[in-house]
Write a structure and sequence with these properties.
Shape: globular
Strand order of the largest sheet: 3-2-6-9-10-5-4
Helix content: 10-25%
Distance between the termini: 34 Å
Strand content: over 45%
Largest sheet: 7 strands, antiparallel
Length: 163
């Protein structure tokens, strides 16, 4: 049997973009660190995000039927503990640091994100303690002048240096 510790050790061997998944909740914005965000298809444009059932933003995403994914820029390292749940910041207060804007759906996207995908919820797949959300990309943005914040082996990297 593979332990949780072993699984994360193995998964940590791939570099990933630090992402925030957000929704325009009924009581203000809600979001979480979405390290599983990845493409599914380009035609039609679909992405997937794995969400723990304990994530407070999940109910808002399901109720609103939409979400956005922001690929954090190298200056966004302070947002990782906030949206990852290790800081004592919750709810809409998570959006106080940084500059946020919206695209078509009205969901928050980080204004300096290297890229952002605005999605309508296409499908949800029940995987036990997580839901796999499939989003149809309806809008997006990219900044060619910024560098991504990368996570590798549990360490944050920006432009080739370790934070």
């Amino acid at each position: 049997m593979v332990s949780v510790k072993q699984f994360w050790s193995w998964m940590g061997q791939r570099a990933i973009s630090a992402t925030v998944v957000a929704v325009d909740g009924r009581n203000g914005p809600a979001g979480f660190l979405g390290l599983s965000a990845t493409h599914v298809s380009a035609d039609p444009p679909l992405i997937s995000v794995s969400v723990s059932r304990s994530t407070s933003a999940l109910a808002e995403i399901l109720a609103r039927g939409r979400f956005a994914v922001s690929f954090l820029p190298e200056g966004g390292q302070d947002l990782v503990p906030i949206f990852g749940g290790s800081a004592s910041v919750t709810g809409a207060d998570r959006f106080r640091p940084g500059e946020w804007t919206t695209l078509t759906t009205g969901c928050p996207v980080h204004a300096q994100a290297t890229g952002a995908l605005d999605c309508m919820l296409e499908r949800e797949i029940d995987l036990g303690h997580v839901l796999l959300l499939i989003g149809r990309v309806v809008d997006g943005a990219a900044r060619e002048d910024s560098q991504p914040l990368i996570l590798f082996r549990g360490v944050m990297y920006r432009s080739g240096s370790v934070d």
